[in-house]
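Open question from group meeting: does this chain pack into something compact, or does most of it stay loose? Before anyone orders reagents, we agreed to write out a predicted structure and look at it together. Recording both the input and the output here so the notebook holds the full record.
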Amino acid sequence: MGFSGHLVFARSERPLLEAPLFGSTGLGLGGDVHEWQPRPGGWQTLQLEQGIWEDEHLPTLVEWTGAPACVADVSDSSIALVTGLDTNGQRWQTWLNLDHAAALLVEEPGDVDDVSVWMATPEFEEAIGHKRAELDAEVPTDAEGALMWASAAGVQTAAQQPRIEELLRTQETFVEELFDALLDELGFPETVHPAPQP
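Structure tokens returned:
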């Protein structure tokens, strides 16, 4: 089983877990949390394995940090829906691992009694192909939104849109690695790993 949960990326001089959002009772967001290695400039990533992340949580986080932020909704380490928001309320979204996303998002016909039987048919494969093409057509807009969001975050990105589009069409075994690579490519300071102890 892969990871299912949320990856929250934001900038703060204080630990992100100090945000009131994570301490609110009833949200359940402060449960099983893993902090990734921080990036220079106060950029932090939290891996939340429990709790329900609602749409209104992202604006709340952006308001608290005063900086753009994003969240990746991850399913079994194979698919992620990334949503970014800047301080002006501009939002963008993209799917990571498009082939898996297409299989998840394809709509089953109304006359299907047994989904497992339908999934073994050529019609299912054709439906996935159509959904994959739809997702692929959205990639240029998604990449443009991601670049504008990174620019609003103040990073000096040298990335060109075609490179971001290429990355959004990439498949990785673990979608968390693809999320991290996207942040790198957008120009956010790369994670500083501590030197191994002798």
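Observations to bring back to the group:
The mean pLDDT is 88.
The first strand starts at residue 5 and ends at 11.
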